[in-house]
Amino acid sequence: MMVALIRTLALIVAGMAPILLPGEGFSARAEQRLLRALPDPLGDVVELKQQLALAPDLDIFAVSNAVSHIMPSLPLNIWEQGDENLTKYPLEGVKKTARKQQLDFLPLDLVLGQVRKQIGSNHHADLRSANPRTDQPVLTLQSGAFTLAEIHSALEKAGNREALSKSDNSYILHYPLFIMSAAKLQLEAGEALTLSTEEGVFVVNIGNFLMQKAQLKGSKERNAVKDFKPFILTALGGGADIVDSALSNLGFGDRTYMRGIDVVSNRLFPIQTQMRLVSNRIVDVGSIEMIGMKQIDIRNNLVINSKDSAFRIRNVESGQLLNNLIVGSQHHGIHLIENPKNLVISGNVISSGQGAGIYASGGVSKAQILDNLLLDNAQDGIALEGAACSEISGNLIYQNGKGGIATTNSLAMHFQKNTLAGNSGAAIAIIGGIATEDRHFLNQNRFIDNEIGVLARHSPKLELTGNDFSRQLPVLFSGELKRNLPQYLARAGKLDTGVSGIFTTTSSTAAAVGNGGARQFVLLNLESCKL
Q: Can you tell me the distance from the alpha carbon of 152 to that of 188, in angstroms, rounded to the nearest whole number?
């Protein structure tokens, strides 16, 4: 009898939830009614997950079609290669190339010494061990603009037939390659370059490296050093422009500067390293790593089965990561490290990773994380430690294994118009704070069938406006926020009497927790930030 009564009461409460828990504020009520009338957002996710499970052999049209049902703002052809405008206008501002073509062979130690002042000498011993030749020569482009065909021809004239072999438009590089500051290498449309894994091949570029409608990959055989795979490193004011191309099987384990596609700059160096990475298909590459750059431009790439985080953005001044499809990363989709700022991260689909969709482990400030789809990642959809003055808006965050959005020790954060559905843990978790008078804003978010709606612990004040909890059962609030639930429900139930829609937590127990240091934002980055 008692069990039947409990079940009956549960059904009554569930049926009353849309009445007890409308949005807050008259201005939000029409929008909330519209939101409730929409179909279940998880309905279209099933088809998309089925398509993404086929990675790396994705049917891009089918994926685009499935995504367009969920995110109508993304064009159907967003990941189709073939942008003629990009290939006509290569990256500007990189080093000037000398007219005279000149190539030579340099010892490996001399080449590594050239980049040591910017990247140090970590793991150089591993590179020596990976190169089986006793004299360890490095093919060096000293000056002039080269194509692969021109390098092959020059080597044949010099009597060297082993550094670069050729079959039609396919080339195999058997020596490491060094592109000096007055030189340029361009892979032309239709060409394919294979870097020999067995022979310890990699590319160091301090000049200009261009790929347009070409292919580059590491070969499948193994090296004597167990986890060696080829990589491309651009540093010391060089430029890399990789457009509409295919790259695969790259990355020397988790070694910094050698993770796959690595671009390194230093704000004190007189010439800034530059990179454009647009409309490429990147498969089985350890990571795409951007370090110390003033500006990054990463758009419309397919990044599949990364062996680490798909993108590692470290100490970057500004830039954009737009409309990338990231599937199956073995760590995070996008990993922000060492106080990056002024980043726009928008229109990305990040799915099926072993970490978080977007993760900031070292402070991020004035970021805009907008209109992304974070789906089926093992950890949070978005997780930020030590973030400040950033906007998380318009994201669709579905079925992630740890939670939806999590922030720790953060300042002046805005969460608005996000849809959070079917996430384990909390849809939004706010842990720790920086200042007792700080507040985070939660505006017009939609909560659907998450394990918990909003969790707060040692948090600053929270201001809630126009959120839709009508389908967030059974737990709306958790942590210290639980004590505010009766007041919240009372306010929500009095909307017809004209009570203001803004609900602010009544007290703050903000207390910074964690290790601080590199995991905290930098105050100097907060100029013009509205706290």
A: 14
Give the angle 65-66-72 at the CA atoms, nearest 5°: 75
At residue 415, the 3 state secondary structure works out as strand
Q: At residue 100, what is the residue type? A: K
3-class SS of residue 170: strand
Interior/surface letters 323-340, b for 16+ CB within 10 angstroms, e for the rest: bbbbbbbebbbbbbbbbb
Residue 256: partners with Cβ closer than 8 Å, 6 or more residues away: 119, 122, 123, 289, 291
Q: Of 269, 250, 208, 257, whose CA–CA distance to 233 is shortest? A: 257
Lowest mean pLDDT across 102-111, 192-201, 418-427, 517-526:
517-526
Q: What is the DSSP string of 259-302?
A: SEEEEE--TTSSS--EEEEES-EEEEESEEEEES-S-EEEES-E
Helix (H) or strand (E) holding 373: strand 373-375
**DSSP codes joined into one string, 445-505:** -EEES-SEEEEEES--EEEEES-EEEE--S-SEEEGGGGGHHHHHHHHTTGGGT--S-EE-
Backbone angles phi, psi at 161, to 5 degrees: -110, 5
**pLDDT tens readout for residues 31-61:** 445 444 455 777 779 999 999 999 999 999 8
449: region left, alpha or beta (phi > 0 left; psi from -120 to 50 alpha): left
pLDDT at residue 491, rounded to an integer = 72
User: What does the DSSP assignment read for 44-97?
Assistant: THHHHHHHHTTTTS--HHHHHHHHHHH-TTS-TTTT-S--HHHHHSPPPSSPPP
Tell how strand 380-385 and strand 403-410 pair up. parallel
Cis status, amide bond into 56, omega within 30 of 0: yes
Residues 6+ apart with CB under 8 A from 216: 187, 192, 193, 194, 195, 232, 245, 246, 247, 248, 250
- The residues, any chain, with a CB within 8 Å of residue 31's CB and separated by 6 or more, are 23, 444, 466
CA–chain centroid gap for 45, Å, is 21
For residue 37, give the H/E element and its range.
helix 26-37
